[in-house]
Amino acid sequence: MSRKRRVVILGSTGSIGTSALKVARALPERMEVVGLAAHSSAQQLAEQAREFGVRHVCIYDSAKYAELRTLLPGADICVGAEGLCELASLAEADMVLVSIIGTAGLQPTLRAIECGKDLAIASKEILVMAGEVVMQRAAERGIAVLPVDSEHNAIFQCLHANPAGAAAVHRLILTASGGPFLRTPREQLAGVTLEQALRHPTWKMGRKITIDSATLFNKGLEMIEARWLFGIPMEQVDVVVHPQSIVHSMVEYRDGSILAQLSSSDMCFPIQYAVTYPDRVPNSLHRLSFEQMLDLHFEPPRWDDFPALRLARTAGSTGGTMPAMYNAANEVAVQAFIEGRLHFSGIWEIVEEALTRLSPRDYAGDLSIILEDDARARDLTAQLLPHP
């Protein structure tokens, strides 16, 4: 018998959240939205709540509370970080989809686990910062952690073909589109403008993640995320550039067999699979036609020209709080680039300099240590930025 999931969406007005609502519209018999949270887009959040009949909403920006209260006079409205946690523990929900950019999704994720909610994870920072804690607590509670990133969802699907688990895996292969600067010579990267960095050739995403895709920091974060999601050592997580974004990722097994997951480039595919798992449910999404797929191209990434991958592998192998500091330093550097205070290739340079100066700590499940080192990395990175 098919099961309808009652889902809370944290980050409902972003690109992942709006795609999740498309899935809810298409599959009302399998997905019911019972809670919505947004950062500050009160108007859009109210429209979503009215369309889906959602009473429980959260606005992270407290300055928007009065506007949202006017727009949704009968709603149960919560605010801020504690509001996200309140929504994540909503009694009528059985799944929480976390698509909040940055570190704000960590505490509500842990609250959802405490309350026995399955997780659909689109916020890679959560597992980069505290993957060991999140996965351990989810395992202890028997909570399903279902990846929504297209790459990790692809690996998740490929691993189902192998009952032997991680022991049979030779490597995980994440595919990368290469971003807008796949063919840009190294010496021209410093002059890249914000407008150029935001022109992703395949995906339509938010500003931060689009820039991360251009620098390959997004892929670096995904490498660390995969290490924790699937219990695979960092040295067995690899990357290959695939500009068509049709093969979403692959698993190479010890016997030399490689399994891949293919679909058109639409985030509704991995979101639907996470929500309907383990079922395969018909939909009206665009299907691939092999007759029209004239060429699938693969090439190695430019490790020297795009150092984010090398820094990620080092951070993931080092462990402790180093992945959290990798993420934090990048967030500060990207914001500086957006504000015009740092040139494009300066993002790598600043992050590498910060990580060289920082000493990671083991946190042994103590989230306060992670948050302290996250703050320490942000402070140092800000100090290293060029002065106006």
Describe, in plain words, how this protein is organized in 3D.
The chain has 388 residues and is α/β, with parallel strands linked by helices. The protein contains 15 helices and eleven strands. It has helices at 15-26, 42-52, 65-71, 80-88, 106-114, 124-141, 150-159, 194-197, 207-215, 217-229, 268-276, 308-318, 322-338, 346-357, 367-384; strands at residues 5-10, 31-38, 56-59, 76-79, 95-98, 118-121, 145-147, 169-176, 237-241, 247-253, 258-262. It has a seven-stranded parallel sheet with strand order 4-3-2-1-5-6-7, with helices on both faces. A four-stranded mixed sheet has the order 9-8-10-11, covered by helices on one side. Helix 2 packs parallel to helix 3, helix 5 runs parallel beside helix 6 (124-141) and helix 10 (217-229) packs parallel to helix 12 (308-318). The longest helix is centred in the middle third of the chain and has 18 residues, at 124-141. It is globular.
The rounded distance between the terminal residues' Cα atoms is 62 Å
Radius of gyration: 20 Å
What share of residues are in beta strands? 5-15%
Category from helices, strands and their pairing: alpha/beta
User: What share of the residues lie within helices?
Assistant: 40-55%
Q: What's the order of the H and E elements?
A: EHEHEHEHEHEHEHEHHHEEEHHHHH
Q: How many strands, what sense, and barrel or not for the largest sheet?
A: 7 strands, parallel
